[in-house]
From TrEMBL:
One of its GO terms (cellular component) is endoplasmic reticulum membrane. This is Dolichol-phosphate mannosyltransferase subunit 1. Residues 7-142 form the Glycosyltransferase 2-like domain. It is found in: Endoplasmic reticulum.
Length: 204
């Protein structure tokens, strides 16, 4: 077992999904034991309430000194070792990249990042990625200043952390397209993204 000498917990926040997440978590709890090798706290929410609220919800259950946030679709693969306050994975530096994305998704991701960087000057190359490590006290401090709930939440976290003077380190990762299911981007999310950027431009 890779984690036998590591004190850790896995917190799963189920944001109103219909893909069997609850059943899989229960199987893992039966297999490894609650509070032992894998400690999984799962909250099934009635509907999709946004990425920001999911992180806030998960933070309430976190007990360690560090918090790693990531998607649960097996897209992220990286070992993080650093003394920074925040470590963020990026595919836009040497050694990083993406695998399995079509041209439209690559253009959408790159365009969203370029627009945000032009307006907000955050000092990191990838603002939309969700693979990050925070010192827990830093995470609590930054998240307390955030108001975004949806797709702009990741950007607001990094921008406000930068404004607060926290040291952020980037590490190259290869983002592998999800193994199961499909990624969904709706027109309403694009509108919310643009509105969120304008809000951050005016308030940070």
């Amino acid at each position: 077992m890779v984690f036998r000498d590591v004190d850790f917990e896995i917190i799963v926040v189920d944001d109103g999904s219909h893909d069997g997440t609850q059943e899989i978590v229960k199987q893992l709890q039966d297999l490894y034991g609650e509070g032992r090798i894998v400690s999984t706290i799962t909250e099934a929410r009635a509907k999709k309430l946004g990425l920001g609220t999911a992180y806030i919800h998960g933070l309430k259950h976190a007990t360690g000194d560090f918090v790693v946030i990531m998607d649960a679709d097996l897209s992220h693969h990286k070992r993080l070792e650093t003394n920074a306050s925040i470590v963020t994975g990026t595919g836009y530096v040497k050694g990083g990249g993406v695998h399995g994305w079509n041209l439209m998704r690559k253009l959408t991701s790159r365009g969203a990042n370029v627009l945000a960087q032009t307006l907000l000057w955050p000092g990191v190359s990838d603002l939309t990625g969700s693979f990050k490590l925070y010192k827990k006290l830093v995470f609590e401090d930054v998240i307390s200043s955030c108001v975004s709930k949806g797709c702009v939440f990741q950007i607001e976290m990094i921008v406000r952390a930068t404004r607060k003077g926290y040291y952020i380190e980037e590490v190259p990762i290869t983002f592998v397209d999800r193994v199961f299911g499909t990624s969904k981007l709706e027109g309403s999310e694009i509108v919310e993204y643009l509105k969120g950027l304008v809000y951050l431009l005016l308030t940070t």
